[in-house]
Amino acid sequence: MKDIIKFSTIVLLGTSLLSSAFGEKMQVVNGKNIINPYYSRTDTKILKIPNSTWKKVLSSDLYSVARLGDTEAAFTGKYNEFDSKGTYYCAVCGNALFRSDAKFASTCGWPSFYEPIRPKSVIYKKDESFSMVRTEVRCGRCDAHLGHVFDDGPKPTKKRFCMNSIALEFEPLKISQN
Ligand SMILES: [Zn+2]
Questions:
Q1: Sorted alphabetically, which Gene3D superfamilies does this protein's record hold (predicted)?
Q2: Neighbours of ion ligand 1 (CB under 5 A)
Q3: In the CATH scheme, what is the homologous superfamily, with its name and number, of domain 41-172?
Q4: Do residues 146 and 97 lie in contact, with contact meaning Cβ atoms separated by under 8 Å?
Q5: pLDDT tens for each residue of 34-85
Q6: Which helix or strand (DSSP H or E) is residue 122 part of?
Q7: Which pTM value belongs to this model?
Q8: What is the Å distance from ligand 1's center to 43 Cα?
């Protein structure tokens, strides 16, 4: 009898989001680990950075959604069916965007929230692409495209902030240990 040993090779190409000890974010861009110097969870200063610069510090998938307005395919995002407690930050700049308490089970295929963490966390822009009139939601700090907001959400706001998972970064609630 011959023993057949199967080796499954798991190739980790490096997760696209690696947080450093200094709160900067490292991403794999063109196969290299690049530090995003604009990323901060404490600095709320508005960023005005051209796309040519963002292209050098963001992974191509994040760049396409956040800076070019692409939409990730429905039901594919990592936070679509996800209900852990914590806070969602902008994956581009670290700005706090949503609390998990405001997330609700939506059938639309993208993570959905009924309100942002603070009114100025996000900004709104009229979007008339694809022969539709929609309200685009952007990050209030770095102007990244996050998704759209619709009027068919649950109480108390009746809003549905329909977001691209890739533009969000989730930080679980820390349980204090004494
Ligand atoms: Zn941002």
A1: Peptide methionine sulfoxide reductase
A2: 90, 92-93, 95, 139, 141-142, 144
A3: Peptide methionine sulfoxide reductase. (2.170.150.20)
A4: yes
A5: 899 999 999 999 999 999 999 999 999 999 999 999 999 999 999 999 999 9
A6: strand 122-127
A7: 0.84
A8: 11
